[in-house]
Amino acid sequence: MSFLELKDIHKSYYVNKEPFPVLKGISLKFERGEFVSILGESGGGKSTLMNIIGGLDRNYEGDVLLDGKSMHAANDRELDNYRRQTIGFVFQSFNLISHLTLLDNVMVSLEMTNLSHNEQVKRATGLLEQVGLSEHIHKYPNQISGGQKQRVAIARALASDPDVIIADEPTGALDSQNTQEILELMDGIAESGKLVICVTHSEAVAEHGTRIVHMEDGKINEDRELKPAFPVEGKQLSTQTKHLSFRSTLKMSLKHMQYNTKRNLLIIFGGSIGIFSVILMLALGNGVKAYMNDQITSQINPTTIQVAKKTNQESLKAVEMTKADRARIDKVSGVTNVVPGSYVANGVQVAYQGKTQKIFQFQTWNKTEKVRDIKLGHKPGTNEILITKTTAKKLSKDYKSLVGKTLNFSMTTVDDNNQPVGLQRNLKVSGIINSGTDAVSYGTLQNMYTEKHVTLRPNFAAVSTKDVQTTKSVQNKIKALKTNGKTAFTITGVGAILDSLNTYISLAFYVLAGIAAISLLVSAIMIIVVLYISVSERTKEIGVLRALGVRRSDIRNLFVSEAFFIGLFSAILGVILAWLVELLINHFASGAIHFAIIQMTGGYVIFGLLISVIISLLAALAPSHQAAKLDPIESLAVE
Ligand SMILES: Nc1ncnc2c1ncn2[C@@H]1O[C@H](COP(=O)(O)OP(=O)(O)OP(=O)(O)O)[C@@H](O)[C@H]1O
């Protein structure tokens, strides 16, 4: 049984569905220790035969037997194994991977062996030394000569210690001195007990081997032994191989990114803009919401809300918050206190030293107003009035001096027969409040009404809650109360706008996030385009890797890992940029509004990282699939 046997190989190419026969029945037997030169006219099918022997092509008739085992029946995985374990390729155009150093080019093959990392490095360095390149191992392929490149290719072909070296015109691109040196190297390989099959045009090169096979018209027309094959001692034990680990694909894609540093930095920068804007928009939305809440809760008491009747009617009776209504609200859990209040929107005025000022917002003092907002004086007691800074300034230039002075307060209301009634009383200014409304105590207003025999009908209730946390649930519970199936109460006052304001802010926030999502989409499209370009640029590399025995799935992983890194680095840069902008804007914002308006959270950072990586991986799906699908022979043929 021969070591390697070709049995009646037929192969046709199909051009426009027309068969074009190239190999027309090739049968050959090869043994270890042979250095076989395959000669023949150009276009005679030598490379086609090499691709079949090398396990790159499986569309042929006949069979290739390795130690008697048929390779024709091998599945994808077994063919990958065969190329990795048994075959070492040397190409006319060297086919080194341009973004890897010479050492790393040789290491690609070694990373698919069971040797430890140190043993791999030692072996790669040893092989490069053997081919006379020990001083150049950290150079890139574009930094060495053609002859040197072919030596690296030979070192790479030998790296996984294969049994067969297939060389397709290995000296085609070299001068005579380099040709001689390469032939001597190949001689040495055959001498070490391996089978060397070398395609050549040159008779001189062919004469160097142990045997010449001549092809013509798709058949063997001469098979001549020049000298006996080199002796092979015992059974050869070649290094065991395995598929490329995920770690190795990660490392390779990092090296590729590193080689194209400038371009990749630009891509990462482009990608980071999407993540940057998403995080910044989220943080801005968060900050604005917090700022609004802070502004509103600084003006009102967060544990007291104003509740009014929900009705379409306007009569004082219809809007009255009756005792029964107040009792009903009092029963809501979380409520600690309910007091009646009266709000008057027009017809109220005050007069001081001949000056009259209309008050547009007037109400009885209640807990929704904050005592700490009273900058001068105190809250209104009996026959006292608390005026706003705005009202005070209209009445007197030296408005602060008004505290303790007496004003004439007047208002009009209607009695139960809807007849207008004028109310009037001299009231002492108890204090001046910065914001909020002008106010008297409920008792004072009630006295004024009683004096004129009119009933004061409260039109709201100030409802106090246990604490800030319960306010929201109390609000919801009150809003849920029904009278005859209809909503009974509504929340009024500044507290009521808090809810709707938050809704508007959330809405604006989603719009902003939507805009940011568009930039994210643009980043994703950019990554897709970049990866497609990368696949087409690296087609040859993919062919080389496949020839070295790298599986389709590893090729896919290579591009997926690159996308993963682009996503990860873009996200990291995006987060850093967002953080810097946060610092900058907050620096100015704290000067202007005393509030950090951009509020980035750990959650947003994690969200940004995840979304960036996920989008990049999704973007990589199609390009990486395309890369994995590439046919190794076609890829190697790309110029
Ligand atoms: N993918 C293909 N589709 C169609 N025809 C092809 C294809 N590849 C090769 N051929 C044809 O098959 C024939 C054999 O090609 P091959 O490359 O094997 O020849 P070769 O002996 O290696 O030639 P050379 O010495 O010039 O390298 C040629 O005529 C070539 O045009």
Q: How is this structure best described in words?
A:
There is one protein chain. The protein is of the alpha+beta class and 639 residues long. The protein has four domains: 4-242, Rossmann fold (3-Layer(aba) Sandwich), CATH 3.40.50; 257-296 and 501-637, no CATH class; 301-339 and 457-492, RRM (RNA recognition motif) domain (Alpha-Beta Plaits); 343-456, no CATH class. 46% of the residues lie in helices and 23% in strands. The chain contains 18 helices and 25 strands. Strands 13, 14, 15, 16, 17, 18, 19, 20 and 21 form a nine-stranded mixed beta sheet that branches. A six-stranded mixed beta sheet has the order 6-7-8-3-9-10, sandwiched between helices. It has a four-stranded antiparallel beta sheet with strand order 2-1-4-5, with helices on one face. Helix 6 (176-191) links the parallel strand 7 and strand 8. Helix 3 (102-110) packs across helix 4 (117-130), helix 3 packs parallel to helix 5 (146-159) and helix 16 packs antiparallel against helix 17 (602-629). The protein is rod-shaped, with a radius of gyration of 44 Å. The model has no long low-confidence stretch (mean pLDDT 88). Bound molecules: adenosine-5'-triphosphate. Adenosine-5'-triphosphate binds next to strand 1, strand 2 and helix 1.
Shape: rod-shaped
CATH third-level topology of the largest domain? Rossmann fold
CATH architecture of the largest domain: 3-Layer(aba) Sandwich
What is the tally of beta strands?
25
Give the strand content. 15-25%
CATH class of the largest domain: Alpha Beta
Q: Write out the distinct hetero groups bound to the structure.
A: adenosine-5'-triphosphate
* Helix/strand structural class: alpha+beta
| Whole-number total of structural domains | 4
| CATH homologous superfamily caption of the largest domain | P-loop containing nucleotide triphosphate hydrolases
Distance between the termini: 40 Å
**Quaternary state, please?**
single chain
Count, helices: 18
What helical percentage do the residues reach? 40-55%
For the biggest sheet, the summary is: 9 strands, mixed
Radius of gyration: 44 Å
As residue ranges, the low-confidence spans are: none
* Mean residue pLDDT: 88
